[in-house]
Write a structure and sequence with these properties.
five-stranded mixed β-sheet; GMP Synthetase, Chain A, domain 3; three-stranded antiparallel β-sheet; alpha+beta; 367 residues; globular; 12 strands
Length: 367
């Protein structure tokens, strides 16, 4: 059985995540190829697509969202993601155990909550029209005055299939966006589900986007448990490798696995990018000593930048007197050629994020 080095795994994952070179793609195809995009905040997927798709424009994703080809909804790991409408219809039921477990994990908050009574009321309210969760919680508490309003909202968010409603805001959603029933938003937009097990299909999609990977990696990405048995069932269809620690890695036979020496350009990833979240063992991308600098104690995942395919630091932007500023906090001193390439890439990113800025400024600082 072939052993794949961490650097070889790095290049394989970067190739699938469109990070070895920007590629021509429409938005819906790109979002599907990436295995969905985490979308905790509205701006992040726009930056994530800009860094991956050749010629990407803000209006491309805006149009896909308004055209109902792509939706923003609670999916993998019970977190907000962008997925295609077709993938939402196919994979939302497969992820139901993840969403149920997320609700059960807050049993202290939701103790005594009657879901059989709550969910029909919430459905009726949302049938009348989209609501943001502040409004929805208030309406629900009128019906369930003894219940905690946060419990009411979280139960509805996890147990009813909902999608967010895009607006004309700059990043297609306001901070407090409306939600609506998926069935009404996506009526006529999804095809009849293909035969086969949707959990198996979800695992295959994961491998296409992030492989080669272990069962633990797939579980970390999806939030589902018991995926070792699923991968064992798929074994005849898969290629199997080992990593340098002797762990078994599964992959699609024809998926790209470039050589170690394939160059990887400077790239910026937004907050919560799935690239840094999609594996239990992130050694292919990130040194363990820096993991705490990327994922904070309150579970925020900072925006990161890549040099030679690895996470080398974090970044953030601000607008000061019409100058867009990008600050890079490097984990260690960067080579001169890295700084030059990152400055050039960072300036282009600032022009995308802040098109009205009179000037752009990229600064490199020690973490």
């Amino acid at each position: 059985m072939e052993t794949l080095t961490a650097r070889r795994l790095n290049r394989a994952t970067l190739a699938r995540q469109m990070l070895l070179a920007r590629e021509k793609s429409d938005v819906t195809t790109a979002v599907e190829r990436l295995g969905g995009m985490q979308a905790q905040e509205a701006r992040h997927p726009f930056a994530g697509l800009w860094t991956r798709v050749d010629g990407f424009r803000r209006e491309d994703l805006h149009r896909a969202l308004h055209g109902r080809d792509v939706v923003r909804a609670t999916m993998m790991r019970a977190t907000l993601h962008l997925v295609s409408a077709a993938d939402y219809a196919r994979f939302r039921p497969a992820l139901d155990p993840v969403l149920a477990a997320a609700l059960n994990g807050r049993s202290r908050l939701t103790a005594g909550l009657d879901l059989e009574a709550l969910l029909p009321v919430a459905r009726e309210i949302l049938t009348e029209g989209p609501r943001d969760f502040t409004t929805l919680r208030a309406l629900l508490q009128e019906k369930f005055p003894q219940a905690d309003d946060r419990a009411l909202g979280y139960a509805v968010r996890t147990r009813l299939p909902l999608v967010m409603v895009p607006t004309e805001d700059r990043w297609s959603f306001p901070q407090a966006a409306d939600f609506t029933l998926a069935e009404s938003r996506l009526e006529g937009r999804t095809r009849q589900a293909a035969p086969g097990d949707p959990v198996e299909e979800l695992v295959l999609r994961y491998l296409a986007a992030y492989g080669p990977a272990t069962a633990a990696d797939a579980q970390t990405w999806s939030g589902l448990k018991g995926l070792r048995a699923v991968l064992d069932g798929l074994r005849p269809k898969l290629a199997v490798f080992r990593d340098e620690k002797g762990r078994e890695l599964f992959d699609l036979p024809d998926a790209p696995r470039p050589d170690e020496d394939v160059p990887a350009p400077a790239r910026f990833l937004p907050d919560f990018d799935n690239l840094v979240l999609a594996h239990a063992d992130r050694a292919r991308l990130l040194d363990e000593e820096h993991r705490g600098q990327v994922t904070t104690k309150n579970l925020r995942v900072r925006a990161t930048f890549l040099w030679d395919g690895r996470v080398r630091g974090t970044w953030q932007t601000e607008l000061k007197r019409k100058t867009a500023v990008l600050r890079m906090a490097a984990f260690e001193t960067l080579p001169r050629e890295a700084v030059s390439a990152l400055r050039e890439e960072g300036e282009e990113l600032l022009r995308f994020l802040e098109p009205d800025a009179a000037a752009v400024d990229v600064r490199v600082e020690d973490a």
